[in-house]
Amino acid sequence: MSISTVNDHVEKLIIIFKRGAIEYGCVHSMLNCGELTVDISNERDIHLAHPWFLEGALHGSYYCLVKLIKVYAKFPPEPPGVLMAYWGKIFDKIKKQEIDSLKDFKNAMERRCVTCGEKDIETLTLQQCSGCSLFCYCGQDCQKFHWDKENHRKECKQLNILNKYHKPYAKEIGDAVIRCDIEIPALENLRYKLGLT
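Above: the chain sequence. Below: its structure as tokens.
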């Protein structure tokens, strides 16, 4: 594929993402507009991506916020320290909330049977799910109910697929998508394993 063909393709993508961002307020489109703008300009005109990342950050997008801080760090002649400090505090606050909520969720799962709520005590030791190591059970009946009636079996299966076919290849897939590769074997394999057609 020639460079002009790739640039034409990227320009068409930007038009589509601009529409999503402007007409629908889609933060994913805002992120993509900013990233594609940076890719086209080879970071010479990184300030052109600034409005997209700023708008996404204002809409609450964690990823736009990260990109916005990176853009500020490259602003000539000097990075805007006050703005970086402001968004850095917002970033820290969001990150702390995410970590706290994950800890709360994990602690709640580790200390109680997910089915009946029985607590882990000296006379009763809960067993962790061998598939995800997140949920706990007080016995086989509770585990069977959770696996069969509440579909945890499928959830665990999907988690195993993601750990095996997505986690090791996530960067490779992401880079290929950004390059607009037509064939991405790792992604096709992952989609097949997940049953996506």
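Residues 1-111 form one domain.
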